[in-house]
Write a structure and sequence with these properties.
The structure is a homodimer of 320-residue chains. The N terminus of chain A is likely disordered. Chain A has 320 residues and is α/β, with parallel strands linked by helices. The first copy, chain A, is globular. Chain A folds into two domains: 128 residues, 3-Layer(aba) Sandwich (Rossmann fold), CATH 3.40.50; 104 residues, HAD superfamily/HAD-like (Rossmann fold). In chain A, helix 1 packs across helix 9. Chain A is built from nine helices and 15 strands. In chain A, the strands form four sheets. Chain A has a seven-stranded parallel beta sheet with strand order 1-15-14-13-2-5-6, sandwiched between helices. In chain A, strands 7-8-9-12 form a four-stranded parallel beta sheet. In chain A, a hairpin with a 6-residue loop joins strand 3 and strand 4. At the A-B interface, helix 5, strand 11 and helix 6 of A face helix 5, strand 11 and helix 6 of B.
Chain lengths: 320, 320
């Protein structure tokens, strides 16, 4: 398996948040980590025993940030598939006293389309509960008077309806999927090379994500391609940017030290949240790979088989 | 204009070659650097005066390595166009006592196709005079028992005719042009992610090149994309790899300190050749940009308007 890329670490200068012993790991149910065993295969008592050390880490948690792709569902043809137990887990979380916010780097679909898809899979979720990079980018574009050339998927174009794209003075790149053609990449490159001060805004910098059909290149590799071609550095809007996590926390009125992030991306979700002072659990679903548990730079506060197990833990321990 | 990318520097550990005062710059004829004034606009005497300091740097030169794209011609629709004066310049060089070798990172065409195109433009060049990355890569593949998944342009596929591509255990990436589709990039990514020890071989790592229609993304940005996606580092075959320059020098039996490289790429041609102990001139044609003359890491031994001027210099000074 490929070794982690040295540049996937963190921006220097942010203090490490205070935390308890990190890296509590629950026993894995099976080697096929991305395919969790059905819920209910372990007794409640056995589960409780295994979780004891991790449970202590969850003291004082008031809010939960949930990644979507790879935690709630795997995207793919026909709308993707819900990850076993996740529909119920979200419902249980939302019935609890915990504040819940969905924090995604999804940039191929508008929030409306994403939420519609998730609701069809049975999730209790609404557009107003989602923090996503496209709206955050639009705010930045407006604040700075930037007129983007958009290298994006048609599915997310509606988020930019109110943005002036004439005579572009920057490039916005998102997970464009099939629209990452040579011609489209070259057009974005040429716009950047014509600018005196080229600005490249990237909606996330994920390396890849998991679709039902397999691993798929995310926006990050294409961001790196344009960075190298133009000799510039992109501004990332989305996880693991601290501003992005903070805006999600603000939306539910929870402080970083009172929050836990649950995601499948060891760097973007777990590392990013920890750098903001949050606790973070990695699920063994979605793009999780066994080597993530030995990542040289990031150690999750805990590793759980799936969202259902994370919610079991939270609901057992947060009110104690 | 974009600032140079920090990663476009050199591999550490190679000793800097001994050299004379570097960076002699001839006066620019016009601001439109990539469009040199027609030859013959300056008297022979004026030219001689301007070249005096640079001429000294050429003492002892016995061999010349010539980049092709951006020095001999600009590629593009209909076979591209010869750069003014370059056809005659190559002919004059080949009539002199100097040894000449063409050293290209062209990886979109086979040598046969490239040479055919250049001959149609009037150049005196044969396949056996060209050092190109595809044949060098084939040698490496055979030596190491590697079976590549090929992410290449159809035009260069014939160079790999003798290579076993079944059950791939590495990826070879070249300047694939329009074949850099999302689907093709994703297939290469998936092959690499399935390998225990992923090997990515890149035919050059150029950022971009100039076609008659404008600047075009080269293989380098796509190499960087796969490096980032998989957390690996590519092996580069072609300029600026020292092995590649050395093989070109060996072909003409010239030592590095007796040779000069003439190219339009400040990093790949000029910097790479200098790291091998050669002298190097940058032409103000092809992908040359004015900021190249103030590159923070690489300083050419001299900057000339075009190949014709470089050959004027060489023929005036090398036999003195």
């Amino acid at each position: 398996m490929p070794r982690p890329h040295p540049s996937s670490g963190f921006a220097p200068g942010l203090p490490a948040p205070p935390r308890l012993a990190r890296g509590t790991t629950l026993p894995r149910r099976s080697c096929a980590a991305a395919v969790p065993a059905p819920l209910g295969t372990r007794s409640r008592e056995a589960l409780s025993d295994a979780m004891a050390p991790l449970g202590e880490l969850l003291a004082g948690v008031r809010g939960v940030l949930l990644d979507i792709s790879g935690v709630l569902y795997d995207s793919g043809a026909g709308g993707g598939t819900a990850i076993a137990g996740s529909v119920e887990a979200v419902a249980r979380l939302k019935r609890s006293r915990l504040k819940v916010r969905f924090c995604t780097n999804e940039s191929q679909k508008s929030r409306a389309e994403l939420v519609g898809q998730l609701r069809r899979l049975g999730f209790d979720i609404s557009e107003g509960e989602v923090t996503a990079p496209a709206p955050a980018a639009c705010q930045i574009l407006k604040e700075r008077g930037l007129r983007p050339h958009l290298l994006i998927h048609d599915g997310v174009r509606s988020e930019f309806d109110q943005i002036d794209t004439s005579n572009p003075n920057c490039v916005v790149i998102a997970d464009a999927g099939e629209s990452f053609s040579y011609q489209n990449m070259n057009s974005a490159f040429q716009v950047l090379m014509e600018l005196e001060n080229p600005v490249l805004i990237s909606l996330g910098k994920g390396r890849y994500y998991k679709e039902t059909s397999g691993l798929m290149l995310d926006v990050g590799p294409y961001m790196k391609a344009l960075e190298y071609a133009c000799g510039i550095q992109a501004e990332v809007v989305g996880k693991p940017s601290p501003e992005f996590f903070k805006s999600a926390l603000q939306a539910i009125g929870v402080e970083a030290h009172q929050a836990v992030m649950i995601g499948d991306d060891i760097v973007g979700d777990v590392g990013g949240a920890q750098r903001c002072g949050m606790r973070a659990l990695q699920v063994r679903t979605g793009k999780f790979r066994p080597s993530d548990e030995h990542h040289p730079e990031v150690k999750a506060d805990g590793y759980v088989d799936n969202l259902a197990e994370a919610v079991d833990l939270l609901l057992q321990h947060v009110d104690k």
